[in-house]
Write a structure and sequence with these properties.
It is a single chain. The protein has about 350 residues and is α/β, with parallel strands linked by helices. The protein has 3 domains: about 100 residues, Translation factors (Elongation Factor Tu (Ef-tu), domain 3, Beta Barrel); about 120 residues, Rossmann fold (3-Layer(aba) Sandwich), CATH 3.40.50.80; about 90 residues, Roll (Ubiquitin-like (UB roll)), CATH 3.10.20. About 25% of the residues lie in helices and about 30% in strands. Strands 4-3-6-1-2-5 form a 6-stranded antiparallel β-sheet. Strands 9-8-7-10-11 form a 5-stranded parallel β-sheet, sandwiched between helices. The two termini are about 25 Å apart. The relative contact order is 0.14.
Length: about 350
Amino acid sequence: MAEQHRSLADHTSIARAHGYHSLRVTAIVDETADTRTLVFDVPGSLVDRFGYRPGQFCTVRAAIDGDEVLRCYSMSSAPGIDADLAVTVKRVAGGVMSNWLHDHVAVGDTLELTRPAGVFCPGDSAGPVLAFGGGSGVTPIFSIVKHILAATRRSVTLLVANRDRESVIFAAQLARLHATYPSRLQLRHHVDAESGYLDAADIASFAAGRTDAEVFVCGPTPFMDLVERGLLDVGVDPAMIKVERFAAGGASTSGDFAEPEGGVTKTLTLVLKGKTTTVDYVAGDTVLEAARRAGLKPPFSCELGNCASCMAHLSEGGASMRANNALTEAEVADGWVLTCQAHPIGHNVTVEYENL
């Protein structure tokens, strides 16, 4: 079991820091017929907590039809350039949260958001940037491009793909950026209705001569797979390609993860909303998967170890995490884990979710 160094007050403070904070919606901008941007007021007491890097996201929590729903939304604003934090949401057919945000949220309403998270962010390189945004995947790309152009001298080559002209998000804003930085921003719009679907050859042609660039890719999964394949075909270093993927609810993250040393876990006890559930542990499951297998509804969002929405505290036993881009070393040493990435260690392991 992780050695406990902090008081109960510190323990609660850590949970609250990664938890949800109420922000008021100050403006709503309709970007397209099915996409809107929500602009938030961040009070002075939360300014430091809501500092962010371009390309990051927040997790939004809402009670919808009696269920707690969590979803990740990327910032379309850019730090130091835009005065207020903003996220952009596209309505998705059957999307519980996206439809609720479109149909029920108005200026003056308050929403619960986590502090910004994620690693889909530009590095310190002075080299060129190559970016691909498909549909609403242009949202974090837009944040990154605005930052790069305003805060650095780096050049940007950007491909934005959409099914038709009416569905292009940030069309006017992108045009203004191009007019402001004509020598540093190369912008290409690909419209399926006019040019047919993109293929790997199109991507390879677009990326030709730019194999030294830092690359950002976001959009529907088939689009991201296509772009990544085309980039690799022309010799772009895989280490230079950053792809923003959000796992669908229920998707497994365990893969071929080997059972960690420290004793095979037999029982896993989960404390969620004051209820204690003990289950026979199935080897290879993450804590989140084990909780689902038990019929529980624990919190989670990105399932990539980036957002901390699923974080919980070990009160018995230990855990090994596949990925952790959300918790500090001190927090991990204190016993906190990301349950979507955590594999139990020890014969009996107990994990407690905070009710925050």
